[in-house]
Specification:
- The chain has about 130 residues and is mainly alpha-helical.
- It has 5 helices and 2 strands.
- Strands 1-2 form a two-stranded antiparallel sheet.
- Strand 1 and strand 2 form a beta hairpin.
- Helix 1 crosses helix 3 and helix 1 crosses helix 4.
- The protein is globular, with a radius of gyration of 17 Å.
Length: about 130
């Protein structure tokens, strides 16, 4: 079983979807520093993707600083908050775009979307405080 969740969507490159899912898992803390990351073989088998694609995904995440390869140990989640604010902004942009597209499809007006975001923001702050 993979240590992150992903719901593959048609029409989007598989590589981008998997990188996004893993980045989101790291940035949100679902995957924590030094957590073991699946091998290329496991990633390939679990996602039913070509091993070369799985290797490219892991290599891209290592290059981005999200994962770290430890010789003799394997791949683990890197120290710190890899990608920092840039990674969080990337995730926000993707989620915001989805929200806008779905809202437009449903005929929801911008003031209603903003009001819903404000309500959820306030509710989350109250829970955390």
């Amino acid at each position: 079983m993979l240590p992150f969740s992903i719901a593959l969507r048609s029409g989007e490159p598989l590589f981008d979807q998997v990188v996004y899912a893993i980045t989101k898992a790291v940035v949100t803390g679902q995957l924590r520093v030094d957590d073991p990351f699946p091998s290329v073989r496991t990633l390939s088998q679990e996602l039913k993707i070509n091993p070369n694609t799985a290797h490219k995904i892991v290599a891209a995440l290592v290059d981005d600083g999200l994962l770290h390869v430890r010789p003799g140990i394997g791949t683990v989640v890197a120290h710190g908050r890899p990608g920092g604010m840039a990674a969080r902004r990337m995730l926000l942009e993707d989620d915001a775009e989805r929200l806008v597209v779905e809202s437009k499809k449903a005929g929801v007006l911008l003031p209603d979307v903003l009001a819903a975001v404000r309500r959820h923001w306030t509710r989350m702050i109250r829970r955390a405080g």
